[in-house]
Amino acid sequence: MAVKKQPPEDESAEAKRRRSGGYHVGTVDTVISVEDVNRQAREMAEPVPIEKIAALAGGNPHVTISNLRAGYGQMEILHDFNLQVGKGQSLCLIGPNGAGKSTVLHTIFGFTNIFHGGVTVGVGADVRDVTALTPNQKLKEAGIAYILQDKSVFPEMTVEENLWMGGYLMEKTSQAREQAEKIFSKYSRLAARRTHQAKVLSGGERRLLEISRALVMEPEILLVDEPSIGLEPRFIDMVFEILDDLQNNEGKTIIMVEQNAKKGLEFADIGYVLVAGETAIAGPGDELLENPEVGRLFLGG
Q1: Collapsed DSSP state (helix, strand, coil) of residue 5
Q2: Is residue 177 one of the residues assigned to a domain?
Q3: What is the CATH number of the domain that holds 202?
Q4: Which end of the chain, N or C, is less surrounded by CB atoms within 10 Å?
Q5: Which pLDDT score is estimated for 184?
């Protein structure tokens, strides 16, 4: 049996730093600090030309963010940020805490102040500027749904009632009920628990309910914030299988923030590494997985 080599007791701090395993990976003495990740990511960053952003989206984007400066109050978080993703594609945003990843989703959905630039949705002659729309308008009129991080279900309501709540913008409650039945026919796991209160569901079942509730309005674009957070590995796999089905079988366009960078990049067609509100690296997801610097800082290898 192989014996794991232990570092010498007198190992210097610098030596410990050199054998660090990556962001949020390893024991306390092997984790790179957020400050170090930001610094090292800036050092490896190169300007990402808009031509590359467009090429990754196949030259025909469904969602476009152009020269965006946005944030909260008067604080600017995103600086001249650009994003493009094609219809039916998936894009994963990774990076250290505070890089602006969730702010991208918030901006698309209408939760931030936009100081410059804008957001458009649609292809060809159907392109629409949605920058100034409210979140309700973006969901109902532009087909954009936001799937929040964990714990967004209504715990005292049943699974069925939670799904009905997903159709709160529909003109008739009967429409929401019809959509709920379609979801039950697709996800037998939820159907078996339709009369159970949401608070008794497992973590994976709650995440499935959160995703399903967002589907009631039949959106074309899904903004998914940390789908794996707080889940056991078996449920993480289940959630990504569901997202894969929504993309590849139902044609949903998915923009995701995922702290589990390896899982997110394995799933996504496109990956962006964000640092301090700017794109440091952009490329196909599998290409970023093979990038040694991305691996060292974000994948634990």
Answers
A1: coil
A2: yes
A3: 3.40.50.300
A4: N
A5: 97
Residue 267, both tokens: 């799933």
Asked whether the whole model's pTM tops 0.70, one would answer yes
Distance CA 22, CA 112 (A): 31
Question: Residue 185 falls within a domain, yes or no?
Answer: yes
How many CB atoms are closer than 10 A to CB 129?
A: 14
Question: How is residue 232 written in tokens?
Answer: 């056991």
Range of the domain at 67: 33-299
CA 278 to each of CA 79, 148, 273: distance values in angstroms, whole numbers, following the listed order: 6, 23, 8
What letters, b where the CB count within 10 A reaches 16 and e where it falls short, cover 254-282? bbbbbbbbbbbbebbbbbbbbbbbbbbbb
Question: Average pLDDT per run of 10 along the chain, which is 301 residues long?
Answer: 44 42 44 72 80 96 97 96 97 93 96 97 91 96 90 92 96 95 96 96 94 96 94 92 97 96 96 94 95 83 53
Contact 132, 84 (CB under 8 A): no
Q: CA 198 to CA 193: how far, in whole Å? A: 9
How many Å apart are CA 180 and CA 159, to the nearest integer? 10
Between the alpha carbon of residue 127 and those of residues 65, 119, 121, 143, 283, the distances in Å are 12, 10, 6, 13, 24
